[in-house]
Description:
The chain is of the alpha/beta class. The protein is built from 14 helices and 13 strands. It has helices spanning 46-54, 77-91, 97-117, 121-124, 145-157, 175-189, 207-211, 214-219, 234-243, 258-267, 283-295, 308-316, 335-339, 367-373; strands at 5-12, 25-33, 36-42, 134-140, 162-166, 194-198, 222-226, 248-251, 272-275, 299-302, 326-330, 378-381, 384-388. α11 (283-295) links the parallel β9 (272-275) and β10. It is globular. The site of magnesium ion (MG) has 5 residues, from loops.
Amino acid sequence: LKIDEVKVFYLKVPKILDIGDGSQDMCLIQVRSGEHVGWGEAEGSPITCIASMYTPFSHSGCHPVIDSVLRMPINATSDIIHISELVRKNSFYGLLQSDITFSGVEIALWDLLGKIKGEPVWRMLGYKKSYPKLPYASVLFGETPADTFDKASKISKNGFAAVKFGWGPYGRGTAAEDGDHVHAARSGIGSDAHLLIDAGTVFGEDVDAAAARLPALESAGVLFFEEPFKATAFGAYDKLSKLSKKVRLAGGEGSHNPHQAFNLIDYGGVGFVQIDAGYVGGIHNSYRIAQYAESKNVQFVNHTFTSNLTLSSSLQGYVGLENHWLSEYPTELSSLASEITINHIVVNSDGYIQVPDAPGLGMQINEDTVRKYKVDVELTVGGKLLYETPSV
Ligand SMILES: [Mg+2]
């Protein structure tokens, strides 16, 4: 079998707000081989992804991603890994978005191959069993501590045993104001639930500013402190990890290849590594990082802030690892991200989630949603049409 067709769609909600919510638009990718199709989502700005897919060849190491994908054989998992290596070799130089664009293609290829073989992706990766994960509701801080408290109480009533607050005003005012938000979150969710805090890289490389937040995090019993610094500021992560007695650091969502995540584990002192399959180069890279984390006693957690298609793809790489028990579970999805799949990964009566035991990613795409939210795009260079939005 060969990859006969690749379709890329730019989908968006009518009005995009300047908030830390990546579910407002989407670069959705469909791959087809014969009568089988697979779907994936790339976690980058959609138009830039389209450009890196179809851009004219610039020089060696700067080929459009499509050149390494179309008409390639797709019969075994080794074919996907081979295509991934080709993209790296052909597009790494000056085409940095290619890692992110290819993430969506790679996910779609696993979905496609799983459907061809009638196997869930996690089983094709070699896992015997898929373990349930404890989902943490992932939400943005409120504007004021009172708003944060209200959000926290609401989530707690919805039955989540773990909640993460992030972004919004955190790190933009004083350490005392941030402490008020953290304690408001703790009172809202109650003393039994796990509380996680995401600083959204707000401290840059400023170890002192981040360290000033530690006492409040410790007294509120926070399980992990996520992304205090820029993704590759490994030295700052390492220093803060040595200052933090109880709260472990988390990071890794900014990794767009496995080595960034390996370095964060080896040199950043993190206790949790968070990986987005739609950003890191796809499912196989997230699987490699999960295996590495397991060998280094670091907990792997998916990073997901968009559709259940991406949630399923980000879970596949570690569902077979029983001790890695947490999962990020977006609860404030845009209408686009919630409507794009017909089925959803829902929290069961025990408060856990599981990936579908179905071929591929086990998610059904709603083609009416693609039609409803798609925005027409054309890429024309020197009068030659390189890309136009395909039909659904
Ligand atoms: Mg984050």
